[in-house]
Amino acid sequence: MRIASVTINGRATYGVVEQDAIKVASAATLEQHPDLRSAIAAVGVAELPSLLSDSHALSEVTYLPVIPNPDKIFCIGINYASHIAETGRPLPEKPVVFMRYANSQVAAGQPIIRPLESEQLDYEGELAVVIGRAGRRIAASEALNHVAGYACYNDGSVRDFQRHSSQFGPGKNFPSTGGFGPWMVSTDEIADPAALTLQTRLNGQVMQEAPISDLVFDVQALIAYCSTFTELVPGDVIVTGTTGGVGLFRDPPVFMKDGDVVEVEISGIGTLVNPVRAER
After folding, report:
1. Which of 8, 64, 152, 239 could form a disulfide with 264 if both were Cys (CB 3.0 to 4.6 A apart)?
2. Residue 157 · residue 172 · CB < 8 Å
3. E runs forming strands in 111-222
4. Short-list 11, 18, 17, CA closest to 35
5. Is residue 46 within 8 Å of residue 12, measured between CB atoms?
6. What is the pLDDT of residues 121-152, one digit of tens each?
C-alpha cells in the first residue's frame, strides 16, 4: 500500500493511494484517530484500510509530510562508504545519530527553503524508515517486524551551520529544509529494503545513485541501535543516511538555489519532488 498524509479543503487526513485517487479517513474516524501516527498505533498498517471510506482524486489533495508529527526523527550521518570516502572521515564504529525536528520537514511538492543565513543548502537523498510497532532493545533479527513502511527523504543540509562544530543539529533543522514523501510503501510490498536503489536528481541531472545495500549500518542495525537508547514508537522515523555525490564535496561545490527542482527517487517507492526557494 502507498500510504499518505494529505489535506483536502484545508482538513488534514490520511489514506491509501490507488492510481490517481486516494481513499481517506472520514470525519468520524478522524475524531478517534486524528492523524496517521495515531491510526498506525491503534490498528496497525494491515488494518488501516478499515478506517477509510471517502475517495478523492489526487488532484484534489495537498500532501503533508508522511508523518507530520513524529515523536522522534533519527537521522544517520556518514552511513554509505562512498559518502564516507568523499568526506575523508574514518569508517564509523557505531551509527552517527542526530535528531531532526518535525517543523523542519516539508511535503512532496512544497518548496524546500534556502534560509537567509546561508547559500550552502545541500541535497541528501535518503531512505526513510517509519516505525509501526513500539519496541525497546529490539534485536536486529526482529527489527523489520517493527517497520510500518519506507519513504523517500531529502535530508537537506545547511552546510556552513552543520560544520560550525562536531554537532550536525544546527545545519539540519532550519525550517522547511527536509523533504518527506509523497507517501510510504508498506512492508508487504518491500520485503527487503536492501534490494532498493536510490537516485537524487537536481534539475534533471543525476547527482547521487546507489543501492540501499551499500549502507554501512543497514536498516536492521539502525533499529536495533536506536531502540537501545530509547523506545521506538509508531510514527518514529529513521532517516538512514545519504550516499556519495553531495554538493559540498563536488568540485566546484554545488548547492541548491532559488528556482531549482530536486528529486529523490527510490525504486519500489516513488519519487519525492520539491522546488527550491530562497527565503524572502
Report:
1. 152
2. yes
3. 112-114, 121-122, 125-131, 147-155, 157-158, 178-186, 197-202, 205-211
4. 11
5. no
6. 999 999 999 999 999 999 999 999 999 999 99
